[in-house]
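Hey, can you fold this?
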Amino acid sequence: MIITTTHHIEGRQITAYLDVVSAESVQGVNFVRDFFARFRDVFGGRSQTLESALKEARAQATEELKARARQLQADALVGVNFEISMPSAQGGMVVVFATGTAVRLR
């Protein structure tokens, strides 16, 4: 399945706009690792724990998005957008929302 953040696919014609599809993934961040990640926030550096949780949540949301598009017999998803949220000020969870438009192609 073709997935793109653009609203068209070079060299292909969209013949039908099927529906807007969305998916979400919530990942817990290990509390002990997250505690040490806060030190990195203060002193600088990358938080591999948070990066890992974000990658996993994005991958899960993308797979769910594709599955929902397949249910509509779509050939592609256009205009895909990802939004990231951390509902708690102390961290602990990462939420990734994905949306896109399922389309058929010629």
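Oh, and this one too while you're at it.
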Amino acid sequence: MMTPDKLFDLTGKVALVTGGATGIGRMAAEGLIAAGARVLIASRKAAACEAVANELNAMGYIGKAEGFGGDVASEEGIAALVAEVESRTDKLHILMNNAGRSWGAPLGQHPYDAWDKLLKLNVQGMFHLTQSLLPLLLKAANAADPARVVNVGSVMGDLPKGTTTYSYAVSKGAVHHMTRVLSNDLAPEFITVNALAPGPFPSNMTDFALGSEEGRAQSAKGVPLGRVGSPEDIAGAMQFLCSRAGAYVSGAILPLSGGMQSSTQISLFNEDL
């Protein structure tokens, strides 16, 4: 039986984080490395992944990082990424499907191509990469310590709060449902599948809104806890879901949104007005 002081220990685990050079992916990678994991960081920009891996390795954590290029937006790119992962490890304990893109345009101007580009990467690519890595995940899986898949969704996949981000919000709603479907199929194989549903977090994708103190303060007004997300929020959630502490959790959509998923503007009966 594992002692409580080891519940969040990831020593000996191998993880792949897609889109891991920036934003939520980088936050997650650091959290996994800090807990002892060997983390493979991949994105379309190989140089950026290598640089981030070097930065993380210089921080003195017990885990280690490796950075390389990998594209989840095409079948050929996924095949190349899977081959690269297979060349580095014979089993995969953790897969974080974080690679994704966004698009914003007002109703009436939202382009046809936006749907194809976002669904191909955010949904189709996520599913196909997971499917392609199943052999490595199965080799790492057992009843006491399942392999883990963590998908990155969004608060906008649950709530109609993403003004103008129609294709993005719908793609993240699909990610949440795909998470439940895959959990249903893979839990009997000792692979848990969960999703993060972040609210506002500073990243390259949200820099247009959260790139300044003023922007972060404005966004925080819509968050019940009164602040935007921090790297520790992502790192802690990943350490929980990927360690013994989270071994009995599957099919969950974990809201990392400061209470946004359960907030309403006014009471149904207006007693506070």
